[in-house]
Design a protein that fits this description.
12 helices, rod-shaped, binds 3,4-dihydroxyphenylalanine, alpha+beta, 340 residues, seven-stranded mixed β-sheet, 2 domains
């Protein structure tokens, strides 16, 4: 009786195992026949009721069936596993001979590029690059530069005042004073940095822009020395002849003071929004350091004198690359930045 059941069971199991078309069907068949509560296990339990001789015979048969099914199961199972692996390998295959998609490296902002070029030029001429705070004292930004509280020059630089009496520096000139205080004379420094003015923003005005301050103090410094350095600077930056003009200019911290203008490189002098239709761009105000300023820095004007200049770095970048709107510089637009 059990013998027949067993052989029927075997042929059904064989057809299910051999005929399983996926790993799940195969697993179901295993559970049904070979599982702990499967058909073969059930038969094993019933064997207990048999007489010893019959039990031995059926036991043998049961083992043979079990081995047969197990080995068929293993064959099918490894077949499915191999198929799965093959499918994955096919799906995840990478062609290492294809060209890489390429990375797009970042680039330095044009302001940084110009700043570094100027730092290189001036350090080669014996100048040190120094820094000063963007949040300044009123004294360093104005008083020490010979701009007393009632002086009209204070109105010319619309100031962002902070609540504690400090201010956002309106120019890099306070760094002159800090450098004199720190290093004394003789002195050769440049101070590139960010400055702030409470101004209406348009194509040529920003509330935040960059200047590069320069100062040289020694014995018997003259306007001729100053002009030599100013010319070296412009030649290094534009790498070509630019038309310049020198006008008297008024700044309380220099005497005499000058405005060095360059002919507008955007319109070539015919007039455009950047040069406010004048054909000229104020680029390099400069002069001989006022004795009061030397005194503020603790330097004796009887013994020392010098020149100073305040280069408009932002303007310079605009001139060099013919950028017609100052607002592009800080807009963070990749279409703009990728051109540098
Ligand atoms: N600090 C002035 C400004 O921002 C520029 C300037 C003029 C700086 C003349 C100087 C100088 O050092 O000598 O308007």
């Amino acid at each position: 009786m059990l013998e027949t059941t067993l052989s029927e069971l075997e042929s059904r199991a064989v057809s299910l195992i051999d005929g399983a078309d996926n790993a799940e069907a195969l697993e179901n068949a295993r559970v049904e026949f070979l599982g702990r509560k499967g058909s073969l296990a059930n038969i094993g339990k019933e064997m207990g009721k048999l007489a010893p001789a019959e039990r031995a015979q059926i036991g043998k048969l049961l083992n043979a069936v079990k081995q047969n099914l197990e080995s068929r199961y293993e064959v099918r199972k490894s077949g499915f596993e191999r198929a799965e692996l093959d499918a994955r390998l096919a799906a995840e295959w990478v062609d290492l001979t294809l060209p890489a998609p390429g990375t797009r490296p970042g680039s330095l902002h044009p302001l940084t590029q110009i700043q570094r070029e100027l730092e290189e030029l001036f350090t080669s001429l014996g100048f040190a690059v120094v820094d000063g705070p963007e949040v300044e004292t009123e004294w360093h930004n104005f008083d020490a530069l010979n701009i007393p509280p009632t002086h009209p020059a204070r109105d010319a630089q619309d100031t962002f005042w902070l609540t504690d009496g400090h201010l956002l520096r309106t120019h890099t000139s306070p760094v002159q004073v800090r450098a004199m205080e720190k290093f004394g004379a003789p002195l050769r420094i440049i101070a590139p940095g960010r400055v702030f003015r409470n101004e209406e923003v348009d194509a040529s005005h920003e509330h935040t822009f960059y200047q590069l301050e320069g100062m040289m103090i020694d014995r018997d410094v003259s306007v001729a020395h100053m002009l030599y350095f100013m010319k070296s600077l412009l030649t290094a930056i534009f790498k070509k002849d630019v038309t310049v003009r020198l006008r008297p200019g008024f700044f309380p911290f220099v005497e005499p003071g000058f405005e060095l203008d360059i002919q507008c490189l955007i319109c070539g002098g015919s007039g455009c929004p950047v040069c406010k239709q004048s054909g000229w761009v104020e680029l390099l105000p400069c002069g001989l350091v006022h004795p009061n300023v030397l005194r503020s820095g603790g330097i004796d004007p009887e013994e020392w004198n010098g020149f100073a200049f305040g280069l408009g770095l932002t303007r310079l970048v605009m001139m060099r690359y013919a950028i017609d709107d100052i607002r592009h510089l800080a807009a963070g637009d990749l279409r703009f930045l990728q051109q540098f």
